[in-house]
What does this fold into?
Amino acid sequence: MAADRTSLSKVVSDQIRGQILEGKFRPGERLVEDRLSADLGVSRVPVREALLGLSIEGLVRLEPRRGATVAEITPEIVAELVEVRALLEGQNARLAARRHDPEIVAQLRETLKRGNEAAETGTPDQLARLNGEFHERLAEASRNSVLTEVMRSLRERTSIAFAINGRDRAREDWKEHAGILAAVIDGDEELAALLATRHVHKAAEAFARAHAAAANDAAD
It folds into this structure.
């Protein structure tokens, strides 16, 4: 029974995580246990366990009396996350170019195609899902399970912040993804690392501009 409950908690956690990363729950939004349990068709116990786990991952904040809310990622935290993620994305792309897995490369090509289409006509949740899929596949191509796990956590936390970036940035994202993939296919480790690192910094710059614009609008 304990194993079944753990499995259910993981399923619930994955569902809530997906909704956060796709923007269905916004930073600062309350995550009400009763509502989540009704929406997901489960009791409050696995929901509570899932929220606890997501708080450890940094995606959810738990506060006395207020309960659970989607974590708000401040510019200061984003800067710290970007410092680490940029380094690791570079190493990840370098390893992907070195180890060149044809099967994963084929999957990346397909994701790239769908991502380019979504950048023009897709919804924000489709873009978020495909962006996560591309980076997850690229992480798998490194064939380093430790790096893949660490990268997943960093990527999810920065994704909450980068959701503020608009469609213009989405188009640039997928152009940059294409460049990274081309370098991986060519086996050019240094170029792949450079482009992957630069990709993170450009997304962070777009976030800073969007965040400043939103702050100015709020002040007006």
